[in-house]
Amino acid sequence: MIDKSPFLTHSETTFNYKMLHPCLETTVNLLCHVAHLGSYYAPGEEPLETMIQQIVLTGSKAVRRKVYNADGII
Fold this sequence. Notes:
By secondary structure, this protein is α+β, with helices and mostly antiparallel strands. It is built from two helices and two strands, in the order αβαβ. Strands 1-2 form a two-stranded antiparallel sheet.
């Protein structure tokens, strides 16, 4: 069988799926094991609340295209 998976540079989503998400999941597992924290990892586009607050403080409207989204949260 030929591996037809795209290169890491194909898109941000490909990079996140192959590199970022496994690293974050491993970090959460380590935190749970060492520190006994109830941490979890949730992949997905999450708007950063502090960015929204900064946009509002500058007098701009918090429109979706101006808000930075994190690739996941721990």
